[in-house]
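Q&A log
Question type: sequence-to-structure
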Amino acid sequence: SNMVYGRAASDFAAALAGHASLTALDLDHNPLLDGGGAAVAAVLPSTPIRSLSLCFTGVGDAACDALALALAGDCRLRSLRLSGNRITSSGATSLAASLGKLAHLDLTANVRLDGAATAALAMALPASALRSLRLSGCNVDRKACSRLAAALPLSRLARLDLSSNHFSDGGSDELAWVLGGCGSLTALSLADCNIGDEGADELLEALADADAPPSVRSIDLRWNKLGSTHQGGRGVSGDPRADASSQKQRTAAERQTEHLEHTWQQAKAA
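Response status: OK
Response body:
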């Protein structure tokens, strides 16, 4: 963080306009709030920026509306990271309506989201170019899983992160039942989703289906509620595509630490 905020954020955004070589911009942990986020969004069409990260910057629905407007226009953005902000379903719905050519969207740890946000994004998936969607810790419920399940076989999505959403077996069942029809999906994270043995049974059956073999190459099932029948190389843990290595339930503080660490590692790699 370089403490870009208030008027400084607007001045910084104005300086970006017409910049000929900047393709990636990371403003994580700067207190931009909606005003700064909207100012950055407004200049995107006049820049070659393809990757934008505004994680933990305090942006909310107004910034999402501005980003959606930019995405609907002549904008080159392909990757958008908005983890740990104040976005509600209204802002997520705006983004869903204007995904454009966006390939990567990260809404991790936006705790004000609910199932309606996931439903809006699911509805937009078949017509979008999204390849990666992260909704970890976004209050995705069973009904939202059902909406995602209906859209996944029609989408280009390769990576879906639904970790830290406690939709239990009902939600994971919805996803398991369509895995065989998801030709693009290669990675699915269901870590810390309160999944038990019944949910693991359905996932194992989907993975073993010879008539409709899924394209998925990895399923993260850590930190759930799997019993001994699905641990130690038995049940779903015996499938090399599934990681069920730890079933110890995590605390909210541990989840937040993981989100922060993930954001930091992504920033270093950018």
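Response note: Residues 252-269 form the longest helix (18 residues).
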